[in-house]
Amino acid sequence: MKTGHLIKTLRLKKGITQEELAEKTEISVRTIQRIENGDVDPRAYTLQSIAAALDVDFEILNIYEDDRNDNEAKKWLPLLHLSGLLLTIVAPIIVWIWKKNKVENIKNHAYDVINFQLSMSLYLLPCLLFSIHPFTVFFVVFSQIFIILNTVKVNNNQPYKYPLNIKFLKP
Questions:
Q1: Distances from the Cα of 80 to the Cαs of 58, 85, 131, in angstroms?
Q2: What is the DSSP letter of 43?
Q3: Which of 66, 160, 30 has the alpha carbon at shortest distance from 108?
Q4: Are 77 and 113 in contact (CB under 8 A)?
Q5: Helices and strands of the chain, counted as H and E runs
Q6: Can you tell me the distance from the alpha carbon of 36 to that of 46, in angstroms, rounded to the nearest whole number?
């Protein structure tokens, strides 16, 4: 059950209209409607106000908020790891900055992906400078394989590891 649907159910159980709930919480009727319809995800302060007005424990509403955060992590953490396929650190940095306040533990994942990209770049640089093609191919294929493997592991909530990783960034 989504948070908005739960709020609507609790509100109707109490026999309160959206207008009365809006008045008690000092939240606009339109915002209450949008929350109940699932059009917006309410912030913690809004959930606290609604919980107080409906005379329910904040944790009841916050559990569903945590579920949404888990869903965000399930989408964005694998994408963060997969963004390393581009062999640049730009894509992982963009994902990390964009979702840093919405996905728990994204900082550690971002540091691991960025460290791996920097490490692979450091290993590839001499290979490219001295035209050592077999090693160049090895490091490119090696990095792509581990990026894909770790993306699958993160997607399945399993521990991941990037070998030959130098810790440039430390959490």
A1: 32, 10, 31
A2: P
A3: 160
A4: no
A5: 8, 0
A6: 13
Structure tokens at 150: 């770790």
Give the CA distances from residue 108 to residues 16, 112, 113, in Å, rounded to whole numbers and listed in that order: 44, 6, 9
Q: What is the pLDDT along the chain (171 residues), one digit of tens a residue?
A: 478 888 999 999 999 999 999 999 999 999 999 999 888 878 888 989 999 999 998 888 776 554 555 567 788 899 999 998 877 789 999 999 988 887 888 999 999 999 999 999 899 889 888 888 888 888 889 999 999 999 999 988 899 999 998 999 887
| 3-14 helix and 44-54 helix, angle to the nearest 10 degrees | 20
